[in-house]
Amino acid sequence: MTRRPTFGGVVFAVIFWFQSFSPTLLPRSWVIQAAVSAVCATVGYALGTLAGRVVRAVMRRRRLAISSAAWRKARLAVVVAGAAVMAAGPVLWLSWQNSQRDLVNMDHLGAVVIAPMLAVTVILAAILMALGRVVGAAVRRLDRWNQRHLPRSLAQPLTVALVLLVAVVALRDVAFVRFTNWASTTFSVVDGGTADGVARPTSNLISGGPDSLVAWDDLGLQGRTFAGGATTEAELREYWGADAEVASPVRAYAGLRSAGDARARAVLAVDDLERAGGFDREVLVVATATGTGWIDPDAAEALEQIYRGDTAIVSMQYSYLPSWISFITDLDLASEAGAELYDEVYQRWVKLPTDDRPKLLVFGLSLGSFGAESAFAGVDGPTSLANITTRSDGALFVGAPHANPILRQLTDGRDPESPEWAPVINGGEVVRFVTRDPDQVEPPGPWNNPRVLYIQHPTDPVTHWSPSWLWSKPGWMDNPRGYDVTDDGRWFPIVTWTQGIFDLMAGFAAPPGFGHDYRLDYVDGWARIAAPDGWTDADTDRLENHLFPNR
Predict the structure, then answer these.
(1) For a surface tag, which of 14, 91, 358, 418 has the fewest beta carbons within 10 Å of its beta carbon?
(2) Does 534 lie in the same domain as 471?
(3) Hey, how many other C-beta atoms are within 10 angstroms of the C-beta on 64?
(4) Which residue, among 294, 259, 253, has the nearest Cα to 272 in the 3D structure?
(5) For residue range 99-139, what is the model confidence (pLDDT) as tens digits?
(6) In terms of Cα–Cα distance, which of 541, 490, 547, 481 is closest to 519?
(7) What residues have CB less than 8 Å from 67, skipping those under 6 apart?
(8) Do residues 399 and 456 lie in contact, with contact meaning Cβ atoms separated by under 8 Å?
């Protein structure tokens, strides 16, 4: 524990520490930056130590040596260069962060945060390096024991195998299992509650209300919030006028406790939709929820206002875990829920007379878009788009995760010269991507109906983060970059990937219109894919100003 730091470890640690200051998609607070820098410096130290041992082994085999004078000069050079880097790094970081904050409408950081950021970095890095040395010492002792009792040709492979076995057991069978058990226990309790201000609906057009086939207590936390938050006729008239003709919207939902499996919940949700008259509305939206069962209330309200309440939205719960936990524990649940619910709605909708059935739209936000895509994913992009356009009247996918199957097909097959963060597919004939860039140029050709729309902010890490950041430059760094993305960001192996992990956390706390906050985009999104007759761009602006007067 008290051994002097290795030369290679110090060199790599300083390099990785400096690179950790480089900006990525979203600004970082000083606390987050301290965590990022500590992790990167620790990883750099480990890699530098390993590299030094490899170099020394090669030199011994080739009977090479470095003179004492050369070592002294090398150490002096590292000290001088390291001091310069450590002095310049925090200053550059602050400048980069504040420039980036200007792009996303966030307040500047003051120079006063540099001192605590550096102090916390040192403390966290010391803890991580101490833990690393403990693990390293244990591995070396195991290897020495094996070499005392076994031939060298067997001892070292056995050490590697045992270390891997212990790592797998510790991470998968102990840490992961305990984490999932904790998450399940904690969030199942949360799911049983009801958010402040949410009351059981009195309308029989809402699941959980009078005559509903779904019990209020079975809807789950987010289901009750969705059902209890339907736009009222008073709210509709507040925008449309006191004498406007409006209707109370239909909202149908089935919670995890409502039925035993995804198929049964889908049938129950659609039965309640049918009971409430959802198939008689002007527009019907099949919305796949996020991990907790959440439907963005701004998305629902935007649609209901556009259509004066003559709408129906149906969804169901497949988990009570936050999306990021659902993503790593059981991604298949979202896919199953999205496919089962849409298929059930479609089978009933398609039997209606073509001139007497609602517009059928698909909606998914974040992990919900992953589930929504699953009902249509084909072998390639054209097949997937054909599935959407032949089985619906339009689709709106918002903040889609990088792993979405159709998103990947479309992005990988985009037209040449269009960037990954704003792809153009076949001139925009069927599907288009909107980035909120005020200067974004629409494809010049016609946009055929039914329309498919992806809304993704250039600064949204959920859309852009990928494990490939570990070893290759991410697509959002291609030129030109997004209008709200800094030009100062640069790729560095391992470091950029680590920064991206923390970006994912920051994305949910970004200001509206940036990162993973899409509340300002829904009116425009619905209007683009399925606007009512006579709806204009001026109507879109007016409704956005009504819903978000301080945007």
Answers:
(1) 91
(2) no
(3) 10
(4) 253
(5) 999 999 999 999 999 999 999 999 999 999 999 889 888 88
(6) 547
(7) none
(8) yes
With respect to residue 29, please indicate whether it lies within any of the assigned structural domains: yes
Residues 7 and 113 both lie in one domain: yes
- Whole-number pLDDT of residue 158: 86
144 and 210 within one domain: no
> How far apart (Å, rounded) are the C-alpha atoms in residues 277 and 261?
24
pLDDT, tens digit, 9 for 90 and up, residues 512-535? 999 999 999 999 999 999 999 999
Residues found in the chain: 551
User: What are the tens digits of pLDDT across the range 33-92?
Assistant: 999 999 999 999 999 999 998 988 898 888 888 888 888 888 888 889 889 988 999 999
Distance CA 490, CA 477 (A): 7
Q: Measured between alpha carbons, how far is 225 from 310 in angstroms, rounded to an integer? A: 20
pLDDT in tens, 419-449: 999 999 999 999 999 999 988 988 888 999 9
Quick check: 375 and 343 in contact, CB under 8 A? yes
User: Is residue 301 domain-resident?
Assistant: yes
Alpha helices in 392-460 (DSSP H): 405-412
* Span 212-259, pLDDT tens digits: 999 999 999 999 999 999 999 999 999 999 999 999 999 999 999 999
Q: Is there a domain that residue 53 lies in?
A: yes
Owning domain of residue 198:
192-457+518-547
pLDDT confidence bin for 1, thresholds 50/70/90: low
b (16+ CB within 10 A) / e for 178-211 = eeeeebeeebeeebeebeeeeebbebebbbbbee
Strand partners, 434: 455
**Cα–Cα dist 25/457, whole Å:** 10
Residues 413 and 325 in one domain: yes
Residue 156 CA to its chain's centroid (Å): 41
Together in a domain, 362 and 422: yes
- Tell me if 365 sits within 8 A of 299, measured CB to CB: yes
442 domain-assigned: yes
Decide the pairing of beta strands 394-398 and 451-455.
parallel
One domain for residues 490 and 394? no
Number of domains in the chain: 2
Helix (H, G, I), strand (E, B) or coil at 315: strand
